[in-house]
Amino acid sequence: MAFRKQLFDNNRRWAARMKQADPEFFAKLVKQQAPDFLWIGCSDSRVPANEIVGLMPGELFVHRNVANVVIHTDLNCLSVLQYAVEVLGVEHIMVCGHYGCGGVATAMENKELGLIDNWLRTIKDVYHQNRAIIEEIDDKEQRLNLLCELNVAQQVANVTHTTIVQNAWKRGRALSVHGFIYDIHDGLLRDLGFSITGPDQIGEIYRIDA
Ligand code: CO
């Protein structure tokens, strides 16, 4: 039970610190959450969303899953996306991957791990579509890191293919979807430059008529 005491002690100290810095902090949070950003990241414990980008509670709406994937039939992710865009009105969606991602690494192998294999299959598709450029690289870590980047690019595209994002654009909303990647080696975040801001930047087959 020692872990419970540690966690609750930590929590008490954290709440006291927050209140000391701003006595109204929790009172303001209770009234509303108005984040400007949606973060879709990996569940990896080394990639904590708020800490990395220095945002406080209330400033970032977060969805995390293994290997930061956006699957068209995932009701959980789609619900987060719909709520963030249509109710909270976020203007920026960030898909954030990270180098050395265990989920992406597993997708590059041929082992059977169980249920998770089905979740990661979509990353095998990304590998298969890009195998020519991936297999040109000899270094195993660099190969993995390239697939981590390509996975982010694919998930950025998947976000923009949803009716949620496209309907927001149709309504004239300014909504951008960005691809970031985090490096655990130095704690630095990089912008991969995949930002998509309108339907003209997505494949024609995915576009929904106005
Ligand atoms: Co990961």
Explain the overall architecture.
The protein has a five-stranded mixed sheet with strand order 2-1-3-4-5. It is globular, with a radius of gyration of 19 Å. It is an alpha/beta fold. The chain has helices at 2-21, 25-31, 49-53, 75-88, 102-107, 116-129, 131-135, 140-161, 163-170, and strands at residues 37-42, 60-65, 92-98, 176-183, 188-191. It is 48% helix and 15% strand. The longest helix has 22 residues, at 140-161. Bound molecules: cobalt (II) ion.
Topology:
Blueprint: H1 2-21, H2 25-31, E1 37-42, H3 49-53, E2 60-65, H4 75-88, E3 92-98, H5 102-107, H6 116-129, H7 131-135, H8 140-161, H9 163-170, E4 176-183, E5 188-191
Parallel strand pairs: 1-2, 1-3, 3-4
Antiparallel strand pairs: 4-5
The protein binds cobalt (II) ion (CO).
Cobalt (II) ion (CO) is lined by residues 42, 44, 67, 98, 101-103.
Bound chemical compounds = cobalt (II) ion
Class by helix and strand content? alpha/beta
Helical segment tally?
9
The count of strands amounts to 5
Radius of gyration: 19 Å
Strand order of the largest sheet: 2-1-3-4-5
Shape: globular
> What fraction, in percent, of the residue positions are helical?
40-55%
Relative strand content: 5-15%
* Biggest sheet details: 5 strands, mixed
Instruction: Name the poorly predicted regions.
Output: none
